[in-house]
Predict the structure.
Amino acid sequence: MNTSRRLRVSMNTTTTTNTNTFERVRDGIAEMGLIVALFMAYEVTRGIAAGKEAVAFGHAREVMHIEQKLGLFHEISLQTWFLTEPGFVRFLNFIYAYTHLAVVIAFAIWVYLFHSERYPMIRNTFLLILGTGLTIYILFPLAPPRFFPYTGFVDTLKLYSGINYDQQGVSMLYNPFAAMPSLHVGFALFSGIGMIQVGRRLIHWIMGITYPLLMALAVVGTANHYILDVIVGALITITAFIVMPRLTAFVSSRVNRDNQFEPKRTVSA
């Protein structure tokens, strides 16, 4: 009897474990699918470019003027310095073009698998950053620096890597006037801050600081963003990390209060 009971308990435990593993994998695939789908929506729909050329170029001149007033207009001098080292420029091209999506997904998978209790807050913070960025893209279309070669800007992706976002086919799925804010920097900083908050080890600090800095150099060095875009993208991410925990706590308290005062239903015999 004891052996039979232990066998049944063991089988039930195994079944429960397999079910939990299946549900976790299923939920993980759904979560990663959501992140990728939102990322693709960000790439495809981060603004409708048609008819906004004049406005976007006007905004670009305003941004450059503001940067000059603030002493921030150093993009051309930085590019000139970078271009003396073609190998470094190719490295920045790689960071800009190929790590943007990969790092966010890798970070999300790491948090989901090894720090699942932190994942909902991390995901919601990402959604807040994304939503804020998309809203600004719609309200403030901005032509990137590479559209102003006559001022000294160089499209390094096109020059060294053969990547041309303006070619037919690519341009239909890409809004060239989504420069403000730099969500390349925003998402890089999101991964960096999140890695430091969740991991807390020295390697996480090193990676969490180094990667956003490299991305900031990449977006400016490739002439895809202004320094002001970098600042705004970073501020959006920092603000999201500050606001989301407070917003979550506020919503939770309201829900708990509503549940507390909700009249209990009685079941008649």
